[in-house]
Amino acid sequence: MKARIGWLPGDGVGPEVLREARRVLEVIASEQNHEFEFAEADIGGVAIERHGEPLPKATQDICLSSDAVFLGAVGDPKYDHLPPGKKCENGLLDLRKLLGNYANLRPVTVFEALVDSSPLRRDSVRGVDLIIVRELLGGIYFGSPRGIEETQAFNTEIYTRDEVRRIARVAFKLARHRRRRVTSVDKANVLESSVLWRETCGEVAKQFPDVAFQSMYVDNCAMQLIAKPAQFDVIVTNNMFGDILSDEASMLAGSLGLLPSASIGGKIGLYEPVHGSAPDIAGKGIANPLGAISSAAMLLEHSLELPREATKLERAILKVLSRGYRTPDLKSRTSREKSKERIVSTKEMGELVCDYIRMPDAT
Ligand code: IPM
Ligand code: MN
């Protein structure tokens, strides 16, 4: 098949990890006779630098004329002084809005090879396989009024029933392809917006009698994710809670650098690693490209409808990890695994994944 992918490396480690994701997609294309075109454009700090704004019109046009969009990261301390609305981060927030992607899928899978990379005990993280379904276009991120005055500042957490219903449906439908358990996370003991969230998710749950449903307060969920993470299958929550809980949950897997994400709901899906621009390690060749590479697998599955290719890619990642290859963020915390580890660079990790994709399945 032919596909055009909007390619937005962005800031910090973004370009480094995207280089590897691209290497991998190119191998998939040549192995399976697909033609992928990568349409590059600027977003975030690099876009502010070159065009004076974080999401220039040219970038918007490229994204809107692509079959899917792939993004590295946005965020540059150089522009931290800019007011909300004009920051690097607005490039991403505006892009999500532009594409209408209200559902952000963030899977967290603990690979057997990495149980010792998690700071948590191996018996608590073993077998964890959950997915956070984060509402992406509403809540306190976008609610108005918002503002900052001399002595006070304010934001508004607001959700309509329709917004909650559509994200809840995504979660329940997804659960049907998994272990059929949905946990909705809110703060309904304090916030009205959460009362509506809880009620609405409860109503949607009735349309999915085959899926087990519970609601949980966000503070409790933050604790349960550490205490007993394997209990979760699908977690559905609002924009801000989803942002926070997904960073927390990433440590179950060993590193934020591993986590992929897909933002769907509109016509054009947006794929990006969950990690940020990590300016402290940018340019050193040590960033973990696996979050980006796994996001490429999500792109193959969700936007290009190439599930076989996606599986091939995921298997290659598993093989590379089980052979002991690690970027520095994945260093094992126990001596048991340390002896088998081989620390590699960003580029080497990308090349290893390519090598394993090229190998016949039996290896
Ligand atoms: C994320 C990021 C973004 C968010 C920032 C960069 C705007 O933290 O994708 O999780 O808060 O959504
Ligand atoms: Mn985040």
Keywords for this entry:
363 residues, two-stranded antiparallel ribbon, alpha/beta, globular, binds 3-isopropylmalic acid, single chain, Isopropylmalate Dehydrogenase, binds manganese (II) ion
CA-CA gap between termini: 27 Å
Number of strands: 14
Rg over alpha carbons = 20 Å
Q: What do we call the CATH topology of the largest domain?
A: Isopropylmalate Dehydrogenase
Give me the CATH architecture of the largest domain, please: 3-Layer(aba) Sandwich
Unreliably modeled segments? none
Biggest beta sheet attributes:
10 strands, mixed
Q: Kindly report the spatial arrangement of strands forming the biggest sheet.
A: 2-1-3-12-11-4-5-10-8-9
Q: What is the N-to-C order of secondary-structure elements (H for helix, E for strand)?
A: EHEHHEHEHEEEHEHEHEHEEHHEHEH
Class per helix and strand makeup:
alpha/beta
Give the integer mean of the pLDDT values.
96
Question: What is the number of independent domains?
Answer: 2
Ligands bound here?
Answer: 3-isopropylmalic acid, manganese (II) ion
The 3D shape can be described as globular
Oligomer: single chain
Determine the number of helices (DSSP H or I, runs of at least 4 residues).
13
CATH H-tier superfamily of the largest domain: Isopropylmalate Dehydrogenase
What is the CATH C level class of the largest domain, in words? Alpha Beta
Q: Approximately how much beta-strand content do the residues carry?
A: 15-25%
